[in-house]
């Protein structure tokens, strides 16, 4: 029996949720190892061995330790290729071309969608939790940047069921955590819900059982 | 030359592919033309075409190129896809370049080189100072890593290392290049990289392009 798969970090963190969603889509059992960031545990020597930048998530299985949520997701898809969702990182018969179609939208998420959406989420959802004031100027600047990206997304999702084509893939999955925060935990839901094709896509992907399970985990009382 | 275009060209050079570079005229707003938007819906460069395959995002393009030419036998396995653990390490340090290294280093390149040369905008020293502070912390991690391994993902070069070339090349043309002197293993790694034929060739093109911009 293989050693358990462990994800380090709180599931409320979008990057940790990204990994949890992937494991659930791939039907890979895992455990969450909490990291008490309010006590600075993410900067402890033992955690820095897992993630030298002192950030969450980190990931460990029987073979190796991985960090950076998108690298973890790709590794999960290849290591556990025979489990769960078989199209998540491209179908075998679609080869390098099929995988590249998914990769370009994973990159868009990391380069263009994540920075402004995370900035907004930090200001509107996390800063108040941390007793810090929201910087509305930062929210405004990032909303303008994000709107341009979402216009491109809305066009794409008018041409294609999912980002990379006809099947739900990692390209969609990587967007889930920040999109969910925007829609459900800020007053900026309209960015997504008021764009017709993007709203259609959001209703579809957010109803997936794996994503629903992640949001349940995010709402569960945290261990003290 | 655009750093992200250079990212792709390094990989093409490393795998020994034949390729053609087609200029996109930003002054004439060609990047917003319907023709270019069909290749890159964000109106950015690079875009890439190989027969029927059309791609955007430099890292996605680069991986496609490496995978396509890997089977030709001459390319070193820059993605290490024969070994799950090694492939994960390549991916980790590729993500680190994208999310840790580049966000700390590129503002220095933009403020010291690109904005003054291309927009006549003076350097914002506050941005530079904050970025250098972030970069020092990132380089602390790199120094520890490169003290144990010759390259980021192990003992031979990989896609993870190649990704660092374009922005670091330009960083070395800023007044802050000497920062790397405080990180001897990082500096040695950089010097190994730029000795590679692919980077010597592209470095010459990038330096010429930069000189051209300064004179414009």
List keywords for this structure.
heterodimer; A: 224 residues; alpha+beta; Glutaredoxin; Glutathione S-transferase Yfyf (Class Pi), Chain A, domain 2; four-stranded mixed sheet; 10 helices; B: 216 residues; mainly alpha; 2 domains; two-stranded antiparallel sheet; 2 strands; 4% strand; globular; EC 2.5.1.18 (chain B); glutathione transferase activity (chain B); transferase (chain B); Glutathione-S-Trfase_C_sf (chain B); Thioredoxin-like_sf (chain B)
Summed up:
Chain A: Pfam families: GST_C, GST_N. Chain A contains ten helices and four strands. By secondary structure, chain A is α+β, with helices and mostly antiparallel strands.
The helix content of chain A, as a percent range, equals 55-70%
Helix fraction bin of chain B = 55-70%
Report the major sheet of chain A. Answer: 4 strands, mixed
Roughly how many Å is the radius of gyration of chain B? 17 Å
Strand content of chain A: 5-15%
Name the structural class of chain A. alpha+beta
- How many domains make up the coordinates of chain A? 2
Task: Find the CATH topology of the largest domain in chain B.
Answer: Glutathione S-transferase Yfyf (Class Pi), Chain A, domain 2
- Number of strand segments of chain B: 2
Helix tally of chain A equals 10
Q: SS-based structural class of chain B?
A: mainly alpha
CATH class of the largest domain in chain B: Mainly Alpha
CATH class of the largest domain in chain A: Mainly Alpha
Choose one word for the global shape of chain A. globular
Listing every helix as H and every strand as E from the N terminus to the C terminus, the arrangement of chain B reads HHEEHHHHHHH
> Which fold name fills CATH's third level, the topology of the largest domain in chain A?
Glutathione S-transferase Yfyf (Class Pi), Chain A, domain 2
